[in-house]
Specification:
Radius of gyration: 37 Å
Distance between the termini: 87 Å
CATH class of the domain at 298-502: Alpha Beta
Number of helices: 15
CATH superfamily of the domain at 298-502: Nucleotide cyclase, GGDEF domain
Structural class: alpha+beta
Oligomer: single chain
Strand content: 15-25%
CATH architecture of the domain at 298-502: 2-Layer Sandwich
CATH topology of the domain at 298-502: Alpha-Beta Plaits
Shape: flat
Helix content: 55-70%
């Protein structure tokens, strides 16, 4: 056995100590690398951002020249202005690997500083999703099969998205050099440390080997008078001295060991009783947790538990998709129902709707009378919050059909609901006081989702989503542009859409005719718009959006809109 220990003790010491050396080296190298990368990235990305802003400022100047001279509708002057912008972009380029280009709203390249061909096949990462708009940094962007970094911004008057890019290899070349230097320094440091460690383990192993031989002798002879030799006046010497004192005390300790064994039995019994009490307390806590989940979502319970001992009345900015649903003409329905019958119907309705929200990972924030407000992205944001909120709305409408079938069997009037979904930034947190608080979200996004829900009555469609939601659907559902609206309190037109999971051939025919009519309508070709909307109504007479636009078109045929008309429709009702 001593031969085995003699062979293996040094590697064991090295395996114990070596990670303690490697860990700080790795951490130091990682911190150095990340600091260098972050510093270089910050400076270089700011430079690209500066170029992007400089180009957009120049484009603003060109646009101002056009608008100040009333030339913004003249194709020749617009083309000249865009040519000047292209030339200015070329002048901003300072390296052969840098490239500045712009794409329009449908992804076509409309300006480039390099003599290279760009189409949707050359930047698939951009073609596969809606083009990003406004002040966004991309650490990795595929362009012509080349990895690049980019700063992306937008120029609204022309509908352009501006890309100021640099080759990834050139952008991070200083970081790569620093990483290689750090790796070399780390390797040298580790080698030197390993040499000193081997020498040190040799010095430690020698007295330990002597101690092992002495201990083996005691085990073979059971002679407690045997002493371990003391070679050094250090920790190994003190260890040997302590061992010698231990053998002298073994006989005296025999009775103490018996007493300890007895006390251990009592301690074991006490531990069993304590464990039983702990399990009972845990069961009570679990029961309370189940009870609280009926009033507060589990995610909010977990959030507040994580903040125990801290101020709970704090807020945070989150990007959230908000679903607002409401029962239409609920007051009229209640007048025809007995109180208990009304409560029973509402409970069954809320249970069906909340089951759908929970299945999609949403949070039922509150009930506002007969309305439901659900959150996707609070208190925890996820990448697919928007698409889950839209799926929830569609599945709520499907669940409503089953609910109404049950209502009919009971001889009760069916429920019709409207759903509005909007995505944007909110302030989320516990609102109230130390005595009573609720977790909720506040902000314009909440108001906008409620207004979208209200618009479902006007357009005769059960569900309406905003433009910010549609851009994030990734073609997973079918969406139809309903209108460009100015809701109460808004000064900027906002496109709104209806959605469906699948389009039948008949419904697609109606949607296509409606879209064709909208194009003519926004182009002020009202005779052509009238014909298209009439074709849509011929295919489906109950299409309320087509009827609305046909009525507007007929009004404009009698009394054309003003020159600055942008096609939007103002809704004065919240």
């Amino acid at each position: 056995m001593s031969d085995i220990i003699n062979v293996n003790i040094r590697p064991k010491f090295i395996l114990v100590v070596l990670p303690l050396i490697i860990a700080p080296l790795v951490m130091a190298a990682l911190v150095s690398y990340l600091s260098a990368r972050n510093g270089i990235t910050a400076v270089a990305s700011d430079f690209l951002r500066f170029k992007s802003q400089t180009l957009i400022d120049y484009m603003d100047g060109q646009w101002s020249l056009l608008t100040d001279n009333n030339l913004d509708d003249e194709d020749e002057y617009i083309a000249a202005a865009r040519g000047a912008v292209n030339a200015f972009a070329v002048s901003l380029v300072r390296s052969s690997t840098e490239l500045i280009f712009a794409v329009d709203s449908i992804g076509n390249v409309v300006m480039t500083s390099g003599a290279i061909s760009l189409d949707t096949d050359s930047y698939p990462e951009l073609a596969a999703a809606p083009l990003p708009q406004g002040g966004e940094w991309f650490d990795s962007l595929k362009l012509n099969d080349q990895r690049r970094v980019a700063y992306v911004d937008s120029f609204t008057p022309w509908g352009w998205t501006i890309f100021v890019t640099e080759a990834w290899d050139g952008f991070y070349k200083p970081v790569i050099h620093i990483a290689l230097l750090i790796a070399l320094i780390g390797a040298i440091s580790l080698t030197v440390a390993l040499v000193f460690l081997i020498i040190a383990t040799g010095l430690v192993a020698k007295p330990l080997e002597g101690m092992v031989k002495a201990i083996e002798g005691i085990m073979e002879t059971m002679d407690l008078k045997t002493r371990v030799p003391i070679l050094y006046k250090d920790e190994t010497g003190r260890l040997a001295h302590s061992f010698n004192l231990m053998t002298e005390s073994l006989d005296k300790a025999n009775e103490d060991v018996k007493d300890f064994a007895l006390r251990a039995v009592f301690a074991h019994r006490k531990a069993i009783l304590a464990q039983k009490e702990t399990e009972e307390a845990k069961e009570k806590v679990e029961n309370l947790n189940v009870l609280f989940k009926k009033y507060v979502p589990q995610s909010v319970i977990d959030l507040n538990i994580s903040r125990l001992g801290q101020d709970l009345l704090i807020g945070e900015d989150l990007l959230v998709s908000i679903l607002m649903s409401d029962i239409r003409s609920f007051t009229t329905i209640t007048e025809k129902m007995q109180p208990q019958e009304l409560v029973d119907s509402l409970n069954r309705y809320f249970e069906a709707m909340v089951d759908v929200i929970d299945s999609q990972g949403g949070m039922t924030d509150k009930y506002i009378g007969d309305a439901i407000m659900a959150l996707f992205g609070a208190p925890e944001e996820k990448d697919d919050d928007v698409i889950r909120s839209v799926y929830t709305g569609l599945e709520m409408l499907e669940a409503l059909d089953g609910f109404n079938t049950d209502q009919a069997k009971r001889g009760i009037s069916p429920f019709n609901i409207g759903i509005g979904i909007h995505y944007g930034r909110v302030t989320a947190g516990n609102i109230g006081s130390d005595k009573k608080m609720d977790y909720t979200v506040i902000g314009e996004t909440v108001n906008m989702s409620a207004r979208l829900e209200g618009l479902t009555k006007y357009y005769g469609t059960p569900m309406i989503i905003s433009e910010t939601v549609r851009r994030r659907l990734e073609d997973k559902v079918e969406a139809r542009l309903l209108d460009k609206v100015l809701v109460k309190g808004s000064s900027i037109p906002m496109p709104v859409y209806s959605v469906t999971k699948h389009l039948t051939p008949e419904k697609r025919e109606v949607w296509d005719a409606f879209a064709a009519g909208q194009k003519e309508y926004y182009d002020r070709n009202f005779p052509g718009a009238q014909k298209a909307f009439q074709e849509a109504l011929k295919a489906y007479p109950d299409d309320n959006p087509s009827q609305i636009f046909l009525e507007r078109t007929l009004e404009y045929l009698k009394d054309p809109p003003p020159e600055d008309w942008d096609g939007s429709f103002r809704h004065e009702v919240k």
